[in-house]
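Methods — Computational structure assignment.
A single polypeptide chain was analysed. Its primary sequence is given first, followed by the predicted tertiary structure written as structure tokens.
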Amino acid sequence: MNQGNPLNLSVVVPTLNEANHILQTIETLFQRAVYPHRIEVIIVDGGSSDQTQSSVKHWQKKNAQKNVTLLQGPAGRARQMNLGASHARAKLLYFIHADTLPPENYDQHIINQEHKDGQAGCFRMAFDLPHWWLKIAGWGTRFNWKFCRGGDQSLFVRKTLFDQIGGYSEDYIICEDLNLIDRLYAQTRFCVLPQKVISSARKYKSRGLWQLQWHFWVIQVNYRRGHSPAQLWAYYQRNVWPNTPKNE
């Protein structure tokens, strides 16, 4: 990236066995950016056993003009996102999951909000499955309440603020996003932008919608009640996916 085109946004994407999604996400991040030459995409892989890393490397070779970095870090989404942030060169960070697609012109929307002194925020969300309950769940993300927040909505934050509050807490294997968002709400006016990211409903499809939704509710309530990171992770392993890696 030359000095005449300073970076507007550093996009951090944590991955673990995301070969089926990551290339679409990378392509969409560039296609839907107003200023694709002024973003960098930082993929932080947690030790994939599939073709995630090789797919990204192949894409990098074919698209050398695009600013994509592949890092390998320790397993754990919080650790991966902190690692990505530590390599970021823009003053604005944007965290998005590998199976989530940003809205059109997402970079401009984030920049505009930051110019209004919006130091942190997210987009609304919709699922890619047209189930009535998931439509309601997506509709609820318009409200600026902490209980309506989650990592699937993506997150933007000024790098100075992210560093100031210590980034993601690496004590949390799950709920790391809720913990960071709580601290952001305490520090600044959190913004919910009206545009929507599109998040994959693959977990609901594979686990069963109502069963999984119940467990996600229990985890959120337990987090709000002050359960420890270890207790939350134990519940997740026991009731959601027993053999889930630490950054799934």
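Note: Residues 209-224 form the longest helix (16 residues).
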